[in-house]
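User: For a benchmark we're assembling, each entry needs the component sequences followed by a predicted structure for the full assembly. Here are entry 17's components. Please fill in the structure.
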Amino acid sequence: MKILVLNGPNLNLLGEREPGIYGCDTLKSINDEIYEAARELGYDVTFFQSNSEGGIIDRLHEARVDCVGVVLNAGAYTHYSYAIRDAISAIKIPVVEVHLSNVNSRDEFRKNSVIAPVCCGSIAGFGKYSYILGLYALNNKLGAAHE
Ligand code: DQA
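Assistant: Structure for entry 17:
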C-alpha cells in the first residue's frame, strides 16, 4: 500500500523560500518525517515534486495504478489549475489537499481553491504538520481497506 506525497511549484525551495511563512525545514527533511510517520501507519510512501502543471498531472495519472492515495500540496496551482482539478477527478483514489500556510489568512486569491471540491478534504496552516495530518486523514479515509 503506497501513498504519494506530491508537491507543486516552488516547494523545492522550502527552507530558503519565505521562511517567515513556510518555515525553515527543507522539502527533504519534511519528506523524511512523512516517511517515518507513513511507515508507522504501515504504508510505503513515494515522493514527487514538479514545478510544472504537466508533471503534476502525469504523476497523478500514474498514482492511479501504483498508489492508494495522495497527499497533495499543489502550491499556487491550487488557486487556478482546472487541469489539475480534472486530473484529481479522473483518478479514483482519494486525494487530500494540504498547505503549509494558512491560505485563508493571506492574499485574497489564496482563499480560493479550485481543487478543494474534488479532494476528500483540506488541511492548511500547520506547517510541515499539515502533511502529517494529511497522511492521518488519508489513513482514516482508506479505513477498512487498510485493516
Ligand atoms: C502553499 C500556499 C499557496 O498559496 C502558495 O502558492 C504555495 C504554497 C502552502 O503550502 O502554504 O506555493 O500551497
